[in-house]
Structure formats: structure tokens, C-alpha cells
Known about the structure:
By secondary structure, the chain is mainly α. It folds into two domains: 1-51, Arc Repressor Mutant, subunit A; 58-194, Tetracycline Repressor, domain 2 (Orthogonal Bundle), CATH 1.10.357. It is built from eleven helices and no strands. The chain has helices spanning 3-9, 11-26, 33-40, 54-78, 84-101, 103-110, 114-121, 124-128, 132-149, 157-176, 186-194. Helix 2 (11-26) crosses helix 3 (33-40). It is elongated. The model has no long low-confidence stretch (mean pLDDT 83).
Amino acid sequence: MSNENYHHENLKAELIKKGLKLLDEEGYENFSLRKVAKACGVSHTAPYRHFDSKEDLIMAIALEAHHKFNQCLEEAVEKHPNDNKSQLKEMGYAYIKFFVENPEYLRLFFLSDFANNIKKMNHEPLIDSEQPFNTFYKAIERCQADIQNGERKSVDTNALALSSWGLVHGMAILIAKKNFSYEGDYLELVRKVLWGGTFLNL
């Protein structure tokens, strides 16, 4: 089977994969279907079999990225079905691990010109799709419900969300960008922080 046939049979997936790499390297403004086609080794018209424009391809990249991220958060929740606090800790660990192992997604979501442009596109399928933040926020609400049921002092849901998200997001950026120098296993260090008694110390 020739490379060209391989690309044609798997072209959509290949365009998304190579498109993510190019979007990360080139940025939104310099990104084009022609460049992605070249990276895939197909004609410049081939991508139009699956995508009408570069925006359509970018949306496909974003949807896949959101799906993968959301999936890793849901898997973290499933590890502790009866312990809401442990769900949040596991989710925090999964959050950091996902972005450390996939820094291109971290840049795509938070450190590039993509985020601003995605808002301008107002793409309904992306807005209505499974959102990682919703998965996270539901876990926050379950944790808060536990606090209230235990007759402990109520904690503001948004304050809890901001503090826990801010901590894991900050660690993800510091590790992914290699701003924090450490000779040991970063992810083991993350576990020490999340399970060390200070995270979600409610």
C-alpha cells in the first residue's frame, strides 16, 4: 500500500493529528489547510473532502482535544466512586499529567492565540460538547454537598473551584514549561502535594 493510499484512507484522522502539530507551531493566523495537506503528503485540495475551511479543521482538533481531556478526568472520577474528595485529588493529578504529557494541548487551550479565536467562532458543537470544566465543576459540587451533609461549615463552590483549579493549573504550567527545577519524578511530587493534607483541607 502506498503512502498516498494510506493517507487517503485515514485522511481525516491524519489531518487532525498533523493539524494539531502545525497549529501549535504556526499559531492560528499562519495556519492553513494547504500547510496541513503538505505535512500529510497529499494534494492541497485533499483536505476539502473532510473540511470546508481551516476553521472547520481547527474545530475538529479542538473537539478531539476536549474529548481526550474530558475522558481522562472522567476516568479519574471512576477510580474513587464513593469518595468525592479523592475524586477531586485524582482529577487534579490527571489534569497535570495530561498537560505535562501533552504540552501541545496546554498551549492550545491556554497559551496561544487559539483561545481568543475560538470564542469569536462561537462554534455550537464545541460549546455543546462534553466540557472538561463541567466534569470538574460537578465534582466540586459533590464535594461541597458532602461538607453540608456532614454539618460542617459551608464552602463557596466557586471559591473551592478557583482554589483547586488554580493550584493544579499552576503546577501543570510550571512542570510542562520546565520552570520548576526538580531532579526527581515530577508526577510523584504532584501526588505528594495533592495527597499531603493541604489540598482540599476542608
